[in-house]
């Protein structure tokens, strides 16, 4: 992996892990889990997508097991949320924004790491989406909830897929340093935030479900 990409991906990974860790910890607090449960759910949320990506592309052991910073980021996020959850819990709308930013950081970075490991445009784009949504799906399953990405009409996976595609395309076109990641992250963040603000929804089937 090129050095400039390595530094960018590490920074984005850590930021995304911390942000998603907060969202996982908040779910744990609302499920009335103890401090251990809060940290576990924060860690699963923050690290789940990256684990899936690294295993699928053969980057083993996953980065989170090779670098102590990856393990500490969700632990710190979980503990901070455990202590300050009354304040964070009142910021429901803000936490949706935080989650959108985590998605924007994770998806393009995951896609570019897949490219660095030799994958083509389509598989790298798909793995970017998996990196973005994987931790949240694991969080919701462990918490006994329908995963956010599977809720009817929610625009979550589609922005992640689009941002990943833009990042990979930018890299294929010769953009270097953090430019492809930044552009892809902007696509994810703007689309997801507009969907929250304007209540946009993914297309739903028309007519009766039974045939």
Task: Give the ordered list of helices and strands.
Answer: HHHHHHHH
Distance between the termini: 51 Å
How many β strands by DSSP? Answer: 0
Bulk shape? globular
Mean pLDDT over all positions: 87
Largest sheet: none
Discrete helix count: 8
Proportion of residues in extended strands? under 5%
Describe this protein with a few key phrases.
disordered N terminus, 8 helices, mainly alpha, 211 residues, 0% strand
Quick summary:
The chain has 211 residues and is an all-alpha fold. It contains eight helices and no strands. It has helices at 3-30, 35-57, 63-66, 68-89, 92-116, 121-142, 157-172, 179-198.
SSE diagram, text form:
Elements: H1 3-30, H2 35-57, H3 63-66, H4 68-89, H5 92-116, H6 121-142, H7 157-172, H8 179-198
């Amino acid at each position: 992996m090129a050095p400039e990409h390595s530094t960018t991906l590490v920074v984005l990974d850590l930021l995304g892990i911390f942000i998603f860790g907060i969202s996982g910890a908040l779910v744990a607090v609302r499920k009335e889990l103890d401090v251990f449960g809060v940290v576990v759910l924060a860690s699963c949320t923050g690290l789940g997508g990256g684990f899936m990506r690294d295993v699928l592309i053969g980057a083993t052991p996953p980065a989170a097991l090779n670098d102590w910073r990856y393990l500490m980021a969700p632990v710190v996020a979980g503990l901070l949320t455990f202590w300050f959850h009354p304040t964070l819990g009142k910021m429901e709308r803000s936490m949706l924004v935080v989650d959108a930013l985590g998605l924007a950081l994770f998806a393009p970075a995951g896609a570019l790491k897949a490219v660095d490991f030799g994958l083509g445009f389509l598989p790298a784009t798909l793995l970017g989406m998996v990196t973005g949504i994987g931790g949240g799906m694991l969080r919701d399953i462990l918490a006994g909830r329908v995963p956010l990405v599977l809720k009817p009409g929610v625009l979550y996976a589609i922005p992640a897929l689009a941002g990943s595609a833009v990042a990979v395309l930018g890299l294929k076109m010769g953009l270097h340093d953090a430019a492809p990641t930044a552009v892809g992250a902007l696509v994810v963040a703007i689309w997801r935030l507009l969907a929250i603000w304007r209540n946009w929804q993914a297309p739903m089937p028309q007519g009766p479900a039974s045939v």
